[in-house]
From TrEMBL:
Species of provenance: Paralabilibaculum antarcticum
Cell compartments where the protein resides: Cell membrane; Membrane
Primary localization class, coarse: membrane
Family stated for the protein in its record: Belongs to the exbB/tolQ family.
Pfam families: MotA_ExbB (PF01618)
Membrane topology recorded in Swiss-Prot or TrEMBL: Multi-pass membrane protein
The organism's taxonomic lineage, starting at the top: Bacteria, Pseudomonadati, Bacteroidota, Bacteroidia, Marinilabiliales
Regions that span the bilayer: 15-35, 47-71, 91-116
Name of the protein described by the UniProt record: MotA/TolQ/ExbB proton channel family protein
InterPro entries reported for this sequence: MotA_ExbB_proton_chnl
Keyword presence, Isomerase: no
Chain segments annotated as coiled-coil in the UniProt record: none
Keywords, comma-separated and alphabetical: Cell membrane, Membrane, Protein transport, Transmembrane, Transmembrane helix, Transport
Residue span, MotA/TolQ/ExbB proton channel domain: 39-102
Amino acid sequence: MSHLFTRLHEGGPVFMYPLLLILILTLILIAKAFLKKGDVEKIIRLISSISLFAIVFGFLGQIVGLIGAFDSLQRTGGNVDPSVFAGGLEISLLVPAFGMSVFLIGRLGIILLIWAQKKETL
């Protein structure tokens, strides 16, 4: 569990913690839709919008991180150890990877909800 929070902090709390909250919200909405045996179309649309926001927010975090990294690289005149640069690139990939994970979880939830609705109507 501490590894998870270490990765969240490495990716940048400004982007990673809101994505964690979005993940929790997505899971709550999926559970709510499964428990609510009625019209879940509104919840499905909400999950769809939230998951799309998560992936775009993740890529925004990467762009902001890369801009900062390249600014630092420019200030040092390009004299950066390649291992330090590679570490920075690895960290810049954490935010979009987490955003994509949230997106995929949301989409999987939508698929399961639609499948459950289709099963009820058969």
